[in-house]
Amino acid sequence: MLDSDMLPISTFDPMAYFQDAPVWYLPQARTVNGADVVYPWPGIFFKNDMHPDAIGSMNWDCDIVDGVALDTGGAMHAWLRQSGSLAREIVGLHSGRWKWHEDAPDLPRSLHEFLDFDAETNGGTQFSELFLGSFLHMRAGSNWNGQATSIYEHRRLLFIQGINQL
Q1: Which of 8, 11, 54, 89 has the maximal Cβ count within 10 Å?
Q2: Residue 16 has what DSSP assignment?
Q3: Which contacts (CB < 8 Å, 24+ apart) does range 98-103 have?
Q4: Exposed e or buried b per residue across 136-165, where buried means at least 16 C-beta atoms within 10 angstroms of its C-beta
Q5: In this structure, is the dihedral angle defined by the CA atoms of residues 127, 132, 135 and 139, taken in order, positive or negative?
Q6: How would you write the chain as a 3-class SS string?
Q7: CA atoms of 76 and 131, how far apart (whole Å)
Q8: How do residues 99-119 score in pLDDT, each as one tens digit?
Q9: What is the pLDDT, as a whole number, of residue 55?
């Protein structure tokens, strides 16, 4: 499962990951009464349906825990508590914490203009995210963050142009 503004930018072999674990997820957390409630973010999630133990009750709804609302996928906190031994966390470069020139200089040339603009409009660090070295997440593809329309449209255009040239 991938978020609508996340696309593969290089070859990815899920079976190589499934040799280690049948489920891979990116953790998302909300603090409830001083403790983190962790659940899989539905924007990047891989499950090997052929693995007998990976088949189970998965509920991707929002949830409320002790009066605190959890985002989409929040109801998966129960599944993660129960089946967490089957799952591994996805490694990534997260928004605001990386610079492509330093942390991922081998990214495809067709994406460089997007990545430069992405950092320029985010105080010098990437707003976008990179997971498993293979999935580039534009972030805010719906402009949920209310970025100026001209900046949003230009960023989106550069992302699409870069992806189309891969």
Answers
A1: 54
A2: H
A3: 98/125, 98/126, 98/130, 99/124, 99/125, 99/126, 100/126, 100/130
A4: bbbbbeeeeeebeeeebeebbebbeebbee
A5: negative
A6: CECCCEEECCCCCHHHHHCCCCEEEEEEEEEECCEEEEEEEEEEEEECCCCHHHCCCCCCCCEEECCEEECCCCCHHHHHHHHHHHEEECCEECCCCCCHHHHCCCCCHHHHHHHHHHHHCCCCCCCCEEECCCEEECCCCCCCCCCCHHHHHHHHHHHHHHHHCC
A7: 21
A8: 999 999 999 999 999 999 999
A9: 67
Output the six-digit token pair for 107.
């990214």
- Mean residue pLDDT of the chain comes to 95
Note the pLDDT of residue 150.
98
Sheet holding 92-93, edge to edge: 6-8, 135-137, 129-131, 92-93
Q: Name the helix (H) or strand (E) containing 156.
A: helix 149-164
Q: What are the structure tokens assigned to 86, written together? A: 């089957």
| Residue corresponding to tokens 């509920």 | 59
Residue 51's pLDDT band, with cuts at 50, 70 and 90, is: confident
Give the pLDDT score at 162: 98
**Domain residue limits, the chain:** 6-89, 92-164
pLDDT, residue 52, reads 79
